[in-house]
Amino acid sequence: MEIAALVSGGVDSSVMVHLLKEAGHDPVIFYIRIGSEEQDGYEDCPAEEDIEMTTYIAKKYGCRLEIVSLHAEYWDKVVSYTIESVRHGLTPNPDMMCNRYIKFGCFDDKWGKDFEKIATGHYATTTEIDGDSWLSTAKDPLKDQTDFLAQITRLQLPKLMFPIGHLMKSEVRALAAEQKLPSATRKDSQGICFLGKINYNDFIERHLGRSEGPIVELETGRILGKHNGCWFHTIGQRKGLGLSGGPWFVVRKDVETNTVWVSNGYDPETQYGKTIHLHGFHFLTRDVWGHFDDAKAVTFKIRHTPDFTHGHIRRAGDRYTLSSDTKIQGIAPGQFAVVYDTEHHLCYGSGVIAASDVETLRAASLHVI
Question: What integer is the mean pLDDT of 200-217?
Answer without folding.
Answer: 93
